[in-house]
Amino acid sequence: MSLSLGGPIEPRVEELQGKLKELQRGRKELEEELQRSQTLRDTLEKEHEALCTEAYKLEVTRKEREDSYKTLKFAWEDVESDLKRQQQLNSKTKELIQQYTFHIQETKLKHRKLRMKFENQLQQLMDQHKHLASVYSPERLPAEVENAEKANEQLLKAEELKLIHLNHLSERTTDTRGPDLRAQSSVGSEEAGCPFQAVDQDAMLKHSAWAASHNPPPPALARRPCGTAGASPPSHS
Question: Is the CB of residue 170 less than 8 Å from the CB of residue 189?
Answer without folding.
Answer: yes
